């Protein structure tokens, strides 16, 4: 299973290299930028390093989520610890800069492979999401990505759509977006080792691939988190099964080993939580791997020593840790935040005699994708082309705000933008003919960005465009209004902080009038102070039925809220985005913009 693409895809890559050369001053500049002796079509340079060992550069990133343009607001910043201990916020990200960073990093490294750990598409801003993420796949092809594992968001539109992104072809409903052009699909393999069809038991895509260069062979195994069914819509994964990450990686590591592939990297869409959110935090302080917790720590400790490094994602955190494998040997575990704000540069020393990685020589670091560097012209051209197609929809004004309203960038359990979205859902679904909702619940993971006061284009400060609203709520989930008892509502609140959500709570955003106390000094379900749960000042009656608005993802039990599946009397309404845009239009104007909600509905006891 070589990572080398078919001949027609190799030819496409060669054409892109020539096209990229147009952005340089002369063809001679392109030649000068290549290592001496580089063969045509060999972007990694000449056959250097024929001694006992050779250094292989592994460049990696994760959780791009279709962010081709620089992410807006706090979502577009990374934190950096300074020499004096203070923390500096640095604007970062955008594929124009990511392309420049990766291309600069590859210079002088004839053995270089680029890999990713999932969620490259899905929950994308309108520029990519409006076109079913075809622009992102095109950009990743231009980035010369060699391989990626799948993440949970690769299943947002289902396995059939994922296969189209891999293999190409125009969208079955929307068709082709540009006259005379058919979507060509990904030049790189998507790996899905632990996602199988129930009917056959076989993986839906390749479980692994082998990158080869001048006798050097490195195997890549790709898996998503086993809990993917809990965090994606059920319709997208019908007929699929998701298996244990450790068992799956170990299985295919044995298979690769039998084939003589001794150097192996696992691409795992599951992650951890470092003790600091600064990208340059020392994750190995005071000891190896001591600075990280969460699922990836346990996974790393149990994956076979045959695997030499783990590239991870999902939690949108930045870390470079050496977590001991089951034999006690240190092993590199990395994650590069999200949205293309960082990339990881790892040196893997390959021993030609043993065909294995010399673990004691592995070095790794995260690097900021700074916006102070030149933009890659081919990426600028790509963004311009797709923006022209999206402009009639993207630039349409929807409403007005008086200041930033933080969602993804909020650091508190209750998010101002979460309150605004919940209020919009309540207002839109409260009329009797729309469902008669009495309250609304919004999952925090569905809030993908902030609403930023500063203009993103020519619309003017404080104007919320359709594109900006889409970036906040890109899933187009249909709204549901259902009956839940008071007891079920209380259980839902308890499931925020217990069961699968105990280690990493998922605090639902609530509409105006619904209040309660969250006591973080306690553990599990006891964190919800039951007698504090009220609707419009009245205590919730466990035996009474309430009409509750929520998106279809939550109504299906997503994010570990299994009790919400027990609803009755469901009415399906408009999409969450349509409801949100209608609220902005009805409740704001240039003279009376919406102010950030106070976020005081959930009383938090620390």
Automatic annotation (TrEMBL):
Xref: SUPFAM superfamilies: 5'-nucleotidase (syn. UDP-sugar hydrolase), C-terminal domain, Metallo-dependent phosphatases
Source organism per UniProt: Streptomyces peucetius
Protein name: Bifunctional metallophosphatase/5'-nucleotidase
Residue ranges of every copy of the 5'-Nucleotidase C-terminal domain listed in the record: 405-566
The Calcineurin-like phosphoesterase domain, residue ranges: 61-317
Matching PANTHER family: 5'-NUCLEOTIDASE, 5'-NUCLEOTIDASE-RELATED
Residues passing through the membrane, by range: none
Family statement: Belongs to the 5'-nucleotidase family.
Region forming the signal peptide: 1-32
Keywords annotated in UniProt: Hydrolase, Nucleotide-binding, Signal
């Amino acid at each position: 299973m070589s990572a080398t693409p078919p001949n027609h895809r190799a030819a496409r890559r060669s054409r892109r290299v020539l096209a990229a050369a147009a952005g340089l001053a002369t063809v001679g500049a392109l030649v000068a930028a290549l290592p001496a002796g580089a063969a045509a079509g060999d972007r990694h340079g000449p056959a250097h390093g024929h001694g006992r060992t050779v250094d292989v550069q592994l460049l990696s990133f994760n959780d791009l989520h279709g962010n081709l343009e620089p992410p807006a607001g706090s979502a577009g910043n990374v934190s950096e610890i300074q020499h004096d201990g203070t923390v500096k916020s640095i604007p970062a990200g955008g594929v124009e800069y990511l392309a420049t960073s990766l291309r600069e990093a590859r210079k002088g490294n004839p053995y270089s492979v680029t890999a990713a750990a999932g969620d490259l598409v899905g929950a994308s801003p309108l520029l990519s999401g409006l076109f079913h993420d075809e622009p992102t796949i095109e950009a990743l092809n231009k980035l010369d990505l060699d391989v990626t594992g799948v993440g949970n968001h690769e299943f947002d539109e289902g396995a059939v759509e994922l296969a189209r992104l891999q293999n190409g072809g125009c969208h079955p409903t929307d068709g082709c977006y540009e006259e005379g052009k058919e979507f060509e699909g990904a030049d790189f393999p998507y790996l899905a080792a632990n996602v199988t069809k129930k009917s056959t038991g076989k993986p839906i895509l390749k479980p692994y691939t082998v990158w080869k260069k001048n006798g050097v062979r490195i195997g890549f195994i790709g898996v998503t988190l086993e809990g993917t069914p809990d965090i994606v819509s059920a319709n997208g994964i019908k007929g699929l099964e998701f298996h244990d990450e450790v068992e799956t990686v170990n299985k295919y590591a044995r298979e690769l080993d039998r084939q003589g592939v001794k150097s192996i990297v696992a691409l795992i869409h599951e992650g951890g939580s470092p003790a600091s959110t600064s990208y340059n935090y020392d994750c190995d302080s005071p000891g190896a791997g001591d600075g990280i917790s969460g699922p990836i720590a346990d996974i790393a400790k149990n994956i076979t020593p045959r695997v030499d490094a783990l590239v991870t994602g999902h939690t949108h955190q930045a870390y470079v840790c050496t977590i001991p494998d089951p034999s006690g040997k240190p092993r590199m575990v990395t994650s590069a935040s999200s949205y293309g704000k960082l990339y990881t540069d790892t040196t893997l020393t390959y021993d030609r005699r043993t065909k294995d990685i010399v673990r004691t020589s592995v070095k790794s670091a995260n690097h900021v994708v700074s916006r102070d560097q030149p933009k890659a012209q081919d990426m600028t051209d790509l963004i311009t082309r797709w923006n022209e197609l999206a402009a009639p929809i993207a630039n349409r004004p929807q409403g007005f705000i008086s200041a930033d309203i933080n969602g993804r960038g909020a650091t508190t359990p209750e998010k101002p933008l979460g309150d605004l979205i919940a209020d919009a859902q309540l207002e839109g679904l409260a009329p009797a003919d729309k469902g008669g909702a009495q309250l609304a619940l919004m999952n925090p993971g569905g809030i993908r960005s902030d609403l930023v006061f500063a203009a993103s284009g020519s619309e003017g400060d404080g104007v919320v465009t359709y594109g900006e609203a889409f970036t906040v709520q890109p899933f187009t989930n249909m709204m549901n209004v259902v009956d839940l008892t008071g007891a079920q509502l209380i259980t839902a609140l308890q499931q925020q902080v217990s069961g699968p959500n105990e280690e990493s709570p998922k605090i639902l955003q609530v509409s105006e009038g619904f209040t309660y106390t969250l006591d973080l000094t306690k553990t599990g379900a006891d964190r919800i102070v039951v007698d504090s749960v009220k609707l419009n000042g009245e205590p919730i009656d466990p035996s009474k039925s309430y009409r509750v608005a929520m998106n279809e993802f939550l109504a299906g039990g997503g994010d570990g809220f299994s009790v919400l599946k027990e609803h009755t009397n469901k009415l399906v309404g408009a999409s969450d985005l349509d409801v949100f845009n209608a609220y902005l239009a009805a409740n704001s104007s240039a003279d009376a913009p919406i102010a950030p909600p106070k976020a005081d509905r959930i009383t938090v006891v620390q």
